[in-house]
Design brief:
about 20% helix; Beta-Lactamase; 5-stranded antiparallel sheet; alpha+beta; about 160 residues
Length: about 160
């Protein structure tokens, strides 16, 4: 992104309203299957030589594998970013590598686990079944050996 006019003082603020494509090689070794174009809206404001403020809203949709069903599912995300980018610019540099800044922040949006599965009943087999934490806690309370387990833990 060319910020030459901003750096020369011709303008005080630069409006950003663009979509950016993140190269697929960047998310190849992540949980992201694919990433839709990233929409960036906001401003870059020149305050001083040591302070160039980028205030943007970033939004897109990443396609992830469901943590339970392993199906590909959309995961929409959006975040606000306010950062001083002056330290990212080298002397006499007129271009801002906004893709790397975006990617650093998008990585933070990748959830550790994400699922859209509502009915866990279909995920069971011979001697096992998938259950929620709440169901597990209920089962533990109704365990006929709970008293014996508590005595063993005390010892």
């Amino acid at each position: 992104m060319n910020i030459q006019k901003l750096l020369r003082g011709e303008i005080n603020s630069l409006t950003v309203d663009e979509e950016f494509e993140i190269p697929c090689e960047w998310y190849q070794n992540t949980d992201i299957v694919s990433l839709k174009p990233v929409k960036v809206v906001g401003t870059i404001t020149f305050l001083s030589e040591d302070s160039i403020l980028m205030n943007i809203t970033v939004s897109s949709t990443m396609i992830l594998k469901d943590s339970i069903s392993l199906e590909e599912i959309p995961y929409p995300f959006s975040f606000q970013m306010e950062e001083n980018i002056a330290e990212r610019l080298e002397k006499d540099q007129n271009d801002l590598d906004i893709l790397s800044i975006l990617w650093e922040n998008i990585v933070l949006e990748i959830p550790m686990h994400y699922t859209q599965v509502k009915n866990l009943e279909q995920y069971q087999g011979d001697g096992w079944k998938l259950m929620t934490e709440e169901d597990y806690q209920k089962k533990e309370k109704n365990n006929p050996f709970q008293e014996l387990l508590e005595q063993m833990e005390e010892e």
